[in-house]
Amino acid sequence: MIVTYYAFTTLSTVGFGDYHPRSNAERGLCAIILLVGVAIFSYIMGNFIEILLSIQNLSADFDDGENLSKWFGLIKRFNSSRSISLDLKLKIEEYFDYRWTNDKN
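User: That's the sequence. What structure does it adopt?
Assistant: Structure tokens below.
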């Protein structure tokens, strides 16, 4: 039981500290508390990372639209300052909108 207690204490990176269990029952209870603490911390961090990823995906959509606008500007620059036709521009924007909303990768 002592080995299990020390393994869980090390696993949870709590450290041994000044207060420590003296009996096997106390060690068992502490080991369970340490594992529950690690599980709760992992769950909270998983949710936090999920929130960060969703924010990153939202900002990526804006970046894609901005990059498409820059690309249209480059086309105009290399086309002797003549813009492409509005119909072609709308078709390209529709294509990329469809692609960005339905891309599963």
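Residues 2-102 form one domain.
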